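Hi, here's the filled form for the chain we discussed.

Project: internal
Contact: R.S.
Residues: 96
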Amino acid sequence: MLNRSKQGSADPSPRLKAGESSARSVESLKYQIIISWSDRDEAFVAKVPELPGCMAHGATYEDALTNIEEAMIFWLDTAREDGIVIPEPRHYAAAG
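And the returned structure, exactly as it came back:
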């Protein structure tokens, strides 16, 4: 699990390094993210069901969201480098 907790961070956007394409972050945002509180970990735990093993956590909901977005980008980049098939994001009906 990634542990990049940033106390007080409210910016949920993934951190892109100079020269990185924002298309990568947009691609990662197409996947479902599940965030829940874990009494055992005493943290918010985030996971992406379509990306096996892609998990992160944070002291706050916002930290968990920031960390999982970074983990998703890392997961997708690693899969591409290793020639792993990247699952298509599932399409969920919008709540309304």
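Let me know if anything looks off before we file it.
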